[in-house]
Design brief:
single chain; alpha/beta; binds S-adenosylmethionine; Class I SAM-dependent methyltransferase; SAM-dependent_MTases_sf
Length: 278
């Protein structure tokens, strides 16, 4: 697997990042780890599909997004829209610490995951607004040229899976996402075997990005990242598709007008895409 990031760079940054981005209870959990455990868990996180959910994952992902947000946006009045957050709270956790005067929106359709996200973020000193709608309709809620950053935190795959499910009448809004995942994987396997993924998903995906571009301020950035979960692979997620999700999406995005790809030093292009509105 192409590593997500540089183990050598991140290992020495872990203790300070834990102090900056974990709460007291979480820091206690971090302190219980030996140096050897930190090293092993970080190496596995960065160099293999993710199989374990540890405090090291929280430290690394929060610190990585914090680094990115600081590079992209120095003002306090950041308005950030996350697409398809599920109940993964790493970006609100970071913003509450790096940009406390900011406004966090998410366009997130699944009802149960929205409830869980609300619960995880309710005590954060950050304005959090959940838009329970398709991200393709977000302009109706936010209006034009409002947000500075749009984030797809491990969400390209989720958006594509939801597009394919809607096409064949599989519900992803009222259902349990994990219970539906085997069906999603089956659909993806068929799309790959029949070489129809691009035909079925590219149009709706680019349509969604086009509407998102309208809510973005001029020069605003869409930041997308991706990584692999071992569980999805064990359940039959087509491995090449999972590993090349970003290059595949980049190929599609090159057809869009109104934005250009930019590159940020140290962010691997197999796992990250940055688009700037022009
Ligand atoms: C598994 S969760 C995502 C978790 C998160 N991105 C992560 O992997 O860390 C999937 C979520 O994506 C949402 N989703 C997928 N396509 C969407 C769309 N077009 N608009 C809004 N939400 C969408 C689903 O409703 C669900 O809440």
């Amino acid at each position: 697997m192409i590593p997500l990031d540089s183990f050598e760079r991140w290992l020495p940054l872990m203790p300070e990042s834990a102090q900056l981005y974990l709460n007291e209870t979480e820091i206690e959990a971090f302190r219980l780890l030996t140096e050897n455990e930190i090293e092993t868990q970080l190496k596995e996180l960065l160099e293999k599909p993710i199989a374990n959910f540890t405090i090291i994952n929280d430290v690394y992902f929060r610190a990585r997004w914090a680094e990115l947000l600081k590079k992209l946006y120095l003002d306090d009045n950041l308005k950030l829209l996350e697409v398809a957050t599920g109940d993964a709270d790493m970006i609100p956790q970071v913003m509450a610490r790096t940009h406390p005067d900011a406004h966090y929106f998410t366009a997130n359709m699944n009802k149960a995951l929205n409830k869980s996200l609300l619960n995880k973020t309710k005590d954060l000193p950050l304005e959090v607004e959940i838009i329970e709608d398709d991200a393709a309709s977000v302009e109706n809620h936010l209006g034009p040229e409002v947000v500075g950053i749009i984030a797809f935190q491990h969400a390209i795959n989720d958006v594509i899976q939801a597009i394919l499910c809607e096409r064949v009448g599989v519900d992803t809004i009222y259902s349990d996402w994990m219970e539906t995942l085997p069906k999603m994987i089956k659909i993806l396997q068929q799309e790959i075997t029949q070489s129809t993924l691009e035909e079925h998903a590219k149009g709706p995906f680019l349509g969604l990005i086009s509407t998102l571009l309208r809510t973005l301020r001029k020069d605003g950035i869409i930041a997308m990242n991706h990584y692999m979960f071992q569980l999805d692979l064990d359940w039959g997620y087509p491995p090449e598709l999972f590993e090349t999700m970003v290059p595949m999406t980049r190929g599609w995005l090159q057809e869009l007008k109104g934005c250009k790809e930019i590159y940020i030093d140290g962010f691997n292009t197999n796992w990250w895409i940055f688009l700037q509105k022009i």
